[in-house]
Amino acid sequence: MAKRLSVIDVDRCVGCQLCIYACARREGHAGTEGARIDVRSAGGMRRGFVVIVCRACDDPPCARACTTGALVPRDGGGVRWAADQCTACGACREACPFGAIQRDSEDHPLVCVYCGTCARYCPHGVLALEEIERSDDAAR
Amino acid sequence: MLPGDPLARVLTIDLSAQRFEIAERRDLFEESLGGAGVAVRILEEECPRDADPLGPENPIVFAVGPLVGLFPLASKTVAMFKSPHTGNLGESHAGGRSATSIRLAGYGAIVIRGASPSPTYLVIDGDRVHFRDASALWGLQSSATVGRVLREREAGSGHRSILRIGPAGERRVSYAGVITETYRHFGRLGLGAVFGSKRLKAIVIVGRRSLPVADPVSYRRVYDALYEAATASPMMRKYHDLGTPMNVLPLNELGALPTRNLCEARFDGAAAISGEALAEGFLGRRLACSHCPVACIHLAALRTPHPKEPYFYKTSMLAYDYELIYALGSMLGMGDPTSLLLLMDEAEAQGLDAISTGVSLAWATEARERGLVSDQDLDGVRLAWGDGVAYRDAVRRIVSQPTDLYRALARGVDAAAAAYGGEDFALAFGGNEMAGYHTGPAGYLGFLVGARHSHLDNAGYAIDQKRLATGLPAADDAIIDEIVAEEEWRQVLASLVVCFFARGLYTPDVTRDALACAGIEANEARLREIGTETLQRKWAFKRHCGFDPASLRLPERIFETPSPSGTIDRSVVEAHLRQFAERTTATPP
After folding, report:
1. Considering the domain boundaries, does residue B96 fall inside one?
2. Domain's final residue, options B360, B391, B420
3. Residue B585 has what pLDDT?
4. What is the mean pLDDT of residues B311-320?
5. How far apart are CA B381 and CA B392, in angstroms?
6. Domains of chain A
7. B227 and A121: CB-CB below 8 Å?
8. Which residues touch B136 (CB under 8 Å, ≥6 apart)?
9. Chain B residues whose beta carbon lies within 8 Å of the beta carbon of residue A37
10. For residue B245, is it within any domain?
11. Which residues of A touch B216 (CB under 8 A)?
12. b/e burial code for range B515-534 (CB count within 10 A of at least 16 → b)
């Protein structure tokens, strides 16, 4: 069964951004560049945080917006990125209503790979890697 | 240092010339790590000995360290400047997103020189620096509004820091602070006034780059060990659950909670303003600094009715910490939590350091009781213990300065007592108002001999508490060595810019392994050398500014009110101070 990330309790987010650092660390470096997850305040920290992850749509608008076949729908939901097909046009980023596609320094899309590293480094139970249930998906 | 690591880059911004330049200073970072170690060296280079702290010649230095962006809890920025409050070393630390933003914008340090002819704010985004007009922001009533405006206007949400001043900084109150991310502060020693003197309203720093590591595999291993240790340690629970206000009840129980200008050391209203009571009644949210799992920042949700409009309520989110509860609470006899939170909110809106504000108002309240200051001096504000409305009125007047007394209070309790008397109960040490620990002789020696005269310099109060718990004598000569050793090690932490709450995690061995990931070799002996040298440089700077440890004033009050370590003996503290003075003057700069 395919997996996806889920923001299970956004109210517990304290804005530590350890998830962002964890995602960037997968690339073999430190810092935050290259992270596929983002956390920002919901209009000032007094209001809490917005955690932006790919929800692995069943019929992903980002893949539909891609005219070069660089974003391929994945079985069970979500997409995979084919680097050699990508022209860095940015249409996928525009198409995602959550803003869940980040970009690298050359404007290529940074798409979640559904590995769950970010969730493993969330100390406050905000994130989880979940199996996608089809009926659940249809209902949402 | 690894190739491609931007740590050694120093960004210097000249507000007078509206220019900036970027220099590579490997020498500084290789020899002194970063943070306090590097900042004090830049201060030596940039700040003339006779600089007017509020003149364009006084630089502002911000420095971060090699572990920022790599490891959790390396989350602080050190600011250095000549303090308009004490006239010597100004140093203040803040977290929020400041350290990660500076490091990931590609800098190890940022230096601000000169003064702008008109109100300005700066935007630092990677290699670009923008000088923006802040004349419309100048004079805004609340520091919070400045943040709100810039948050909307500037890019980089989630990956930036917004440093700003309130009205107190604009009016150059000598203990005005700089606020970052609404809830964190470069609070002490007047960085806000230095911003104000430069007509610098705010700095926005955006950063989200990558940083190289020596070996990704060992980096992940060291990271995981630190992460596991941090999240499993009791430190995590302690600071996360109740936060620093967990100290209110134990210190009160001990008889170490300064109350009503330290006329007493136990507060009958302590339970109502304790960490437990505030959590139960008000806790609305916790926040963390960037890359810190602890989330020690506690926000109270305060719902207040509109004074005129029925069924209209305002809900404010206010950060509270132990030091605010002491300085604006017990020190002023404020046992009503709502009034206390409103007073904290006023100090925050004005952009004042809460400790210096509370201690100054405590002196003023006692001075009024004793007839040293009149209601006319106070512009009609009838200061009285526990009167939150009067204290809020007084806080606004410290900033607007309608009378000579408020002009003096805007320079702190030493200045006010010098003009109006009452030095015996003016509770500042080395010119800096005291923190909330009437624990015993080591606590006060710590305030006196700390390079910043801050409780965080060397935590002398913790030595008192340890000695009380283990039954050791309170005031033997060993406390000097313990204080100096602690302050030297804290220079290492402050150079790495590791949060002092994580001092138990970043042992010399862990620090060595973490630094190796950044391509820096430093064993315990080398780290300790850096600590010693950094502290010596701070003392040299203080001496160059004319500071003389022999001139330190000891207010009689601390010898009158019994501490948990017994009544403190003036002659013992003076003897320790003499020994310390000999030691620092004997040390070459």
Report:
1. yes
2. B420
3. 66
4. 95
5. 10
6. 3-139 (3.30.70.20)
7. yes
8. none
9. none
10. no
11. 28-29
12. bbbbbbebeeebbbebbbbb
Q: CA neighbours within 13 Å on the CB side: how many for B465? A: 15
Question: Quick one: B168 and B192 in the same domain?
Answer: yes
Q: How many structural domains comprise chain B?
A: 3
Contact at 8 Å (CB) between B332 and B365? yes
Write the residue in A27, A32, A45 that is nearest to B104 by C-beta.
A32
Contact B227 A17 (CB under 8 A): no
Quickly count: other Cβ atoms within 10 Å of residue B23's Cβ: 12
Q: Does B287 touch chain A (CB under 8 A)?
A: yes
Question: pLDDT at residue A140 above 70?
Answer: no
Q: For B527-556, what is the mean pLDDT?
A: 95
Distances (CA, A) of B93 to B36, B149, B191, B483, B501: 9, 25, 11, 20, 13
- Does a structural domain hold residue B374? yes
B187 lies in the same domain as B318: no
Domain limit, last residue, from B370, B394, B420 = B420
Find which of A135-139, B424-428, B580-584 is predicted with most confidence, using mean pLDDT.
B424-428
| Per-residue pLDDT, A137 | 47
pLDDT for res B163: 98
Which residues of chain B have a CB within 8 Å of the CB of A124? 293, 295
What is the tens place of the pLDDT at every residue in A82-123?
Answer: 999 999 999 999 999 999 999 998 999 999 999 999 999 999
Tell me how far apart the alpha carbons of residues B290 and B432 are, in angstroms, rounded to a whole number.
29
The backbone torsions φ and ψ at residue A129, rounded to the nearest 5 degrees and listed phi first, read -95, 125
Alpha carbons A81 and A67: distance in angstroms, whole number: 13
Whether residues B341 and B285 fall in one domain: yes
Q: What is the pLDDT of residues B481-499, one digit of tens each?
A: 999 999 999 999 999 999 9
Q: Is residue B334 part of a domain?
A: yes
Number of residues assigned to chain B:
589
Q: Which CATH number belongs to the domain containing residue B121 in this structure? A: 3.60.9.10
- Give B240-278 pLDDT, tens digit per residue: 999 999 999 999 999 999 999 999 999 999 999 999 999
B197 and B265: one domain? no
Report the CATH number that the domain containing residue B380 is assigned in CATH: 1.10.569.10
Question: Do residues B284 and B404 share a domain?
Answer: yes
- Same domain for B302 and B353, yes or no, is yes
**Max CA separation in chain A (angstroms):** 43
B500 shares its domain with B382: no
Residues B73 and B200 occupy one common structural domain: yes
Model confidence band, residue A139 (pLDDT cutoffs 50, 70, 90)? very low
**pLDDT, tens only, B148-202:** 999 999 999 999 999 999 999 999 999 999 999 999 999 999 999 999 999 999 9
Domain hosting B511: range is 433-586
Residue A27 in this model has a pLDDT that exceeds 50: yes
Question: Which residue among B210, B287, B290 sits closest to A24, beta carbon to beta carbon?
Answer: B210
Which residues of chain A from 116 to 135 reach within 8 Å of chain B, CB to CB? 121, 123-124
Instruction: Tell me what percent of the residues of chain B surpass a pLDDT of 70.
Output: 99
